Amino acid sequence: MVALAGASLLSVAVTVxxxxxxxxxxxxFFREVxxxxxLFGTRWTPRFTGQESYGVLPLITGTAWTTVxxxxxxxxxxxxxxxxxxxxxxxxxxxxxxxxxxxxxxxPSVVYGFFALTFVAPFVLNDLLGLDVGTFSVLSAGIVLxxxxxxxxxxxxxxxxxxxxxxxxxxxxALGANKMRTTLRVVFPAAISGIAASIVLALSRxxxxxxxxALAAGTQARMVGSxxxxxxxxxxxxxxxxxxxxxxxxxxxxxxxxxxxxxxxITFVINLISIRLVRKFREAY
Amino acid sequence: MATIGQIATRPLRAExxxxxxxxxxxxxxxxxxxxxxxxxxxxxxxxxxxxxxxxRLDSNLFTQYSSQxxxxxxxxxxxxxxxxxxxxLTAVLxxxxxxxxxxxxEEFADPTRWYNRLVEVNLQNLAAVPAIVYxxxxxxxxxxxxxxxxxxxxxxxxxxxxxLPVIIITTREALRxxxxxxxxxxxALGATRLKTVWKQSLPSAVPGVATGTILALSRxxxxxxxxxxxxxxxxVRFDPDGLMSGFTTMPVxxxxxxxxxxxxFRELAAAAIIVLLGMLLLMNAVAIVIRNRYQRRW
Lengths: 285, 298
Description:
The structure holds two protein chains of two kinds. Helices cover 76% and strands 0% of the residues of chain A.
């Protein structure tokens, strides 16, 4: 009994551990670099010896572009798939298509990164759509990121819509509304907090995803002005720097954790919003 | 305002409001396209990886180490062994801890207490923390306890922490599906609460627990981000032989190869992707078989 409680307290210890593991090196970082320079500086060149600059905004623009593009892909396709599966799909079709979404969710992100790098960027964007993008762009990384999180949006939204009681649908149909109207005006609003939670969770995953952006977005941090440009995200920077040599205690090692702390704080806020929304949607019926 | 009589006598405009109106059909087509897009992406991803990698799917891939100078005959031997070691350790660490925590939260904890609610919210948050953060946690932990970072033990700890919340959440769902009558019957016959859990709730929940655990492990199997922070990226040219041995895993190896400019490395990455997807498919198939064969309906 005590051992069991101990195991569940471990999860709290993990959170405390994460905060400490990120905070301590980050504090050493902020002893050398001011918080203002870090948060508002527009040049991120920690590896240029002699002219190091620690403005994190370039990494944030990279993350913002890939995240927004990813959500622009994942929200319409994910919601469309969810509405179809929850409201329209015959039992047999559902039985085939739900596992397809599960498989899509189970593909490792490094495989998506390879897909972005070797297929989406050179073939789909360059050859098929005639866009002027190089090997690396926030566009190809963002699109593939969006594909990866379609199942997140779809399966949670579908749960939310399936949880809407049938009496609401029947009431709407009995008043003469057709199925589309019932779906859009009755089921969708009734499930809105669950749907919102799915989108917020997708947002959190998009911000924190590493392997796709590390492979496909680019390896140089800069202020990204348009989707066809390359750039580096927060996670991309952590992945790239971590693979090089970095000795604990040095400024370059601490830089990693400063960026990691920022990433953790951003996703933490997003997750809390999502948890609140889920609770609201559980309470509804 | 229309009276009831007026509404009743108004002719129904089927072409605008019926199921076969233009808007309805366009809406349905849009929904179809959304799903078709998802399916198309999956098919394209699988086909392109297969086409790129199939000619390198030879015995060298399984028996040779990765080589910087001769990628055309290099292989993923170290990565395959490394994956088995790390995932094995992850399972050993995460499964007992996860089940213990879930049993406590579901069978013993009083959900109205503030500390149990804290654990609850905390778990939901941990499940959505970016994977790479778990790598940073483990790197910090290793530094504190004086463990070398790039070893199997560190990799197993990182991945176990990553999937612990998932295992706890799915195990709790499986336990929740066991009806209260089973527990009440056991308690009525004089069994203690611990005995009731051990002999009744937990055995009944085994299929659900097994399915959730296997799916969580398959997530760990495909995860590379936390391992990057442990320095598991070097060209490893030996099989790991213990918990303190250096290692690389399949996803890390794929990341490394995919980032190389030469086309031979790309082919090697694609071939390794086929192997990785094969491993995942196998695990998922096992999970589905367990779910279909042993799942009880109450």
